[in-house]
Every structure is written in structure tokens, then in C-alpha cells.
Specification:
By secondary structure, the protein is mainly α. It folds into 2 domains: 4-349, Sodium/glucose cotransporter; 375-467, no CATH class. It has 20 helices and no strands. It starts with a helix and ends in an 11-residue tail after the last helix. This is Na+/solute symporter.
């Protein structure tokens, strides 16, 4: 990419992000504003922020790479993310929005006991930090291929901008940047890159003529891979703090439910678009050494000067929106679910403390991205631990009245130990880690819950009342 207009578009995009940070800074006066945007988002803003959050570097750059390698079946990664968002909306969103909480760990503590909340927050914090690192690395890859900048410089520059606007404006700034990023992603992928790439590859007829028949088989990527995406991404999105925190921003359970369903449909369409761009890239650039470069290479091949910058901004938008969401999620659970609540004796950290923890988490993530270089394995471990340790007790908290705090702790411990055992014996990409981790968690959860005294009727009634009654009706919220 060598057009001055393209560089100016990237600079303008970054300027918009910083302006959003300043706008959010002026609005973030309370913890409610900083962490959950005052719980005031309507359907349009909610759809935009949730879509931008769920679709990151894996869905955009990785989705095109999978399309390059496997054809339309490469859509399963991003599609599972979208289907997970839809399932979250159908099964959890109304209850979560009504609770008036800010953190994943709050559910475990309110329904079970303090220890469950603490251990859940620690597991979630590690997971979110690793997702931030992978997104920052994706930014470095984009800048290295397209702009010729060193990955380290790109990580520091683009990652620093994400950190700056997130720390300054909190959820209001992140929501505004998400809306901008959602628009840029939609225009860049659906209205520019996809039609132009297909056109230069000869349309769908040209793809069928040039590519093997397997490229048009939805199962060509393999049943085991589809299962792995289901276990990691579908289940992970359903319980991830970054998606839950978006649910907490909705002004009502209805907004969260319908906005999430529309997000799911959007993500599935985005998944197909990415896979088709990958197919076109395979026809136009059949000899790429690294499929992960397919997005950047096909963009520079098919797009005219002046448009390349917008499409690169679309990829950056997808990556930066997820990076900022997970940065906010990591700092929220660590600042509020761990430090403020368990060590400072406060229910919620103030705005200043939230900003400080976010800054420390962000700097740590940037340093890790520069030093480690490749954290795919670490991310796989984080996903396995997250799903194995916390999925069962979370579902139990929302739907099983007989669940107990002892059962939740047993589930977290059993799922973690079994998942780690399989990771160490079969490798970091073993599906068995999540499968048997989930089974161990379920058995421990049900068995220990049935063997221990049931929760007190008073505690259970208060919990169920909170899930059914909107927080605004009972004066819920943060100070």
C-alpha cells in the first residue's frame, strides 16, 4: 500500500478513536458510566458494540486465512462466535441485564459464595489478558505486511492508541469506537473487499472453475475442527466477560435479547463473507507461503489506491474493537472482582482505580505481545480453562435451584485440573481437554451439590428476584 490517501485514511481513523476517547472521558463520571456506559444503550448502539466486540482478528484475518486454505467451510470459526452470541442472548441476556452487576464473578458470588467469585475472576482475568495479546499481535501482522512497519513498532503504536482511548473514556469511549468500527467493518468487508475480490476472481463461477470441489463443502474443514470451534468459541462467547459486559450496558433485557440475536445473524454473514474473500484470494494468489497474510495481500491486489486504506481500517477496526473489549473485561474482573472486593473491602472500584488497573493490564499485554510473539498455544490453554472451569457453574447458577457453593467450587477445581492434565499429556490443541474438563466439572458440580445442604431459601429467593426484576426498578447500579 503506497497511496498517500490510504495513509491519510488510517491516520484519520486513529484520530477518530482518540476523539472518542476524549468524548468518553468527559462522560465517565461514575463507575456505572466507566464500566457499563450507564446501562443506557438502545438497540442500534447495542447491536454495533456487541458485533464489533465479538468479531476480532480471528474472525477477520483468521477467517480469510481459513477460507484460503479450506474454502467456505472456513466460515465455521466466526459463525460459531456469532451463534454463541445468539445463544447468550436467548438463554442468559435478560437475566444478566436484570441483575444490575458488572462482572462475571458477581454471578458466582451472589449465587454461591465469595470464594467461587474470586477463583472465577482469576480464571477470567487470565483468559481476557491472553485475548488482548493475540489481538495486539494481529495488529502487528497487519502493519508489517501492508505498511512495512516492524511488528514491534506497530504493536506499540496501535496498541497504545487502544490503551489510551480505553483508559481515558472507559465503556462510553469503547462503545463509540465500536460503533465507528462496526460501520467501517461493514463497509470495508461487505461493500468493498468482497465484491471487488470476487469480481477479479471471475465471480462465483470463476471460483468453481478454479478451485477443488471441497472448497464448496461446508464440512471440508473437518468434523473435529468444527467441534473444537464449538467448544472453544461458541461456549466461550456465552460466558466471556467481554460479551457479558456488553449485556450489562443494555437499557433492558429486551434490548439485550434482540440485539444479541441480530448480532448472531450479522456474524454468520460476516463469516461467509470472509471465507469467500479467502476463496478469491486462493484464485488470485495461489502461492502464498503464509495463509494468515491472505487478507492483507488480497486487499493490496484488488483494491485501488484510496480504498485500500479503508479496508485496512476495517481489519484494524475488527481487531481493535475486540482488543479494547477484552482490555476492559480483564481490568473489570481484576479491579472489581478481585482487588476492590476481596482485598480493599469495597463492592466496586472507583473510576480512578479502574483506570489505573486498566493501564497496568494494558501495559502488561503490550509487553507480552512484544516478548512472546506467538501466543496461540497460550490462548488455547486459556479457552480450555475458562470453559472447563466456569461454564457448568454459570449455567447452574442461572437455571438449577439445587446448585450449591461447594458444588461450584468443586466444578471449578475439577474442570481446571482435568483440562490441564489433558493439555499436558495430549498437547495444547487437544479437544479432549475441554470435553473431559466439562464432564469432570459437571459430575463434580452435580455430585457435590446433591451431597451438601441446599442454599438457604432466603438467599435463593433474593437471587431469583434479582434475575426477574430489572435493576432500575429496584434502584440497582453502581456508585
Amino acid at each position: 500500500m503506497n497511496g498517500v490517501i490510504d495513509y491519510l485514511m488510517i491516520i484519520a481513523y486513529f484520530a477518530l478513536m482518540l476523539a472518542a476517547g476524549y468524548w468518553g472521558y468527559r462522560r465517565a463520571k461514575t463507575a456505572d458510566d466507566f464500566l457499563v456506559a450507564g446501562r443506557r444503550l438502545g438497540p442500534v448502539m447495542y447491536l454495533g458494540t456487541l458485533s464489533a466486540t465479538t468479531l476480532g482478528g480471528a474472525s477477520t484475518i483468521g477467517g480469510v486465512a481459513l477460507g484460503y486454505q479450506f474454502g467456505v467451510s472456513g466460515m465455521w470459526l466466526a459463525a460459531m462466535i456469532g451463534l454463541g452470541a445468539a445463544a447468550l442472548s436467548l438463554l442468559f441476556s435478560s437475566r444478566l441485564a436484570n441483575l444490575g452487576i458488572i462482572s462475571f464473578s458477581d454471578v458466582l458470588e451472589l449465587r454461591y459464595r465469595r470464594a467461587a467469585g474470586l477463583f472465577g475472576a482469576l480464571v477470567m482475568g487470565v483468559y481476557e489478558v491472553m485475548v488482548v495479546v493475540t489481538q495486539v499481535l494481529a495488529i502487528g501482522t497487519l502493519f508489517d505486511v501492508v505498511l512495512g512497519l516492524s511488528p514491534t513498532l506497530a504493536i506499540v503504536a496501535a496498541g497504545g492508541i487502544v490503551l489510551l482511548y480505553s483508559v481515558a473514556g472507559g465503556m462510553w469511549a469503547i462503545t463509540l469506537t465500536d460503533i465507528i468500527q462496526f460501520v467501517v467493518m461493514t463497509v470495508g468487508i461487505f461493500f468493498l473487499l468482497l465484491p471487488l475480490a470476487l469480481s477479479q476472481a471471475g465471480g462465483l463461477g470463476g471460483l468453481r472453475a478454479e478451485l477443488p470441489a471441497s472448497y464448496f463443502d461446508l464440512t471440508a474443514i473437518g468434523g473435529q475442527t468444527i467441534l473444537a470451534y464449538f467448544l472453544s468459541f461458541f461456549l466461550g462467547i456465552m460466558i466471556g466477560q467481554e460479551t457479558w459486559q456488553r449485556v450489562f450496558t443494555a437499557r433492558s433485557g429486551s434490548v439485550a435479547r434482540w440485539g444479541g440475536l441480530l448480532t448472531g445473524l450479522y456474524c454468520v454473514a460476516y463469516a461467509f463473507a470472509g471465507a469467500l474473500v479467502g476463496c478469491a484470494a486462493r484464485v488470485l494468489l495461489p502461492d502464498l507461503a503464509n495463509p494468515d497474510n491472505a487478507f492483507a495481500q488480497v486487499a493490496t491486489t484488488v483494491l485501488p489506491v484510496g480504498v485500500q486504506g479503508l479496508v485496512l481500517a476495517a481489519a484494524l477496526a475488527a481487531v481493535m474493537s475486540t482488543a479494547s473489549a477484552c482490555l476492559m473485561a480483564a481490568s473489570t474482573v481484576l479491579a472489581n472482582g478481585v482487588y476492590a472486593h476481596f482485598f480493599a473491602g469495597r463492592e466496586t472500584a472507583g473510576v480512578a482505580l479502574n483506570r489505573l488497573i486498566m493501564l497496568l493490564v494494558g501495559v502488561a499485554a503490550l509487553v507480552l505481545a512484544v516478548i512472546v510473539g506467538d501466543v496461540v498455544g497460550a490462548l488455547s490453554v486459556a479457552f480450555a480453562l475458562l470453559v472447563s472451569a466456569t461454564f457448568v457453574p454459570i449455567v447452574g447458577a442461572l437455571y438449577w435451584r439445587r446448585a450449591t457453593g461447594a458444588g461450584a467450587l468443586a466444578a471449578i477445581a475439577a474442570g481446571s485440573v482435568v483440562a490441564l492434565a489433558f493439555i499436558f499429556t495430549q498437547g495444547i490443541h487437544s479437544n479432549a481437554a475441554i470435553i473431559f474438563g466439562l464432564l469432570a466439572s459437571l459430575v463434580a458440580f452435580v455430585g457435590v451439590s446433591l451431597l451438601t445442604p441446599p442454599p438457604s431459601p432466603r438467599r435463593l429467593e433474593e437471587w431469583e428476584r434479582r434475575m426477574e426484576e430489572p435493576a432500575v426498578a429496584r434502584g440497582g447500579g453502581l456508585s
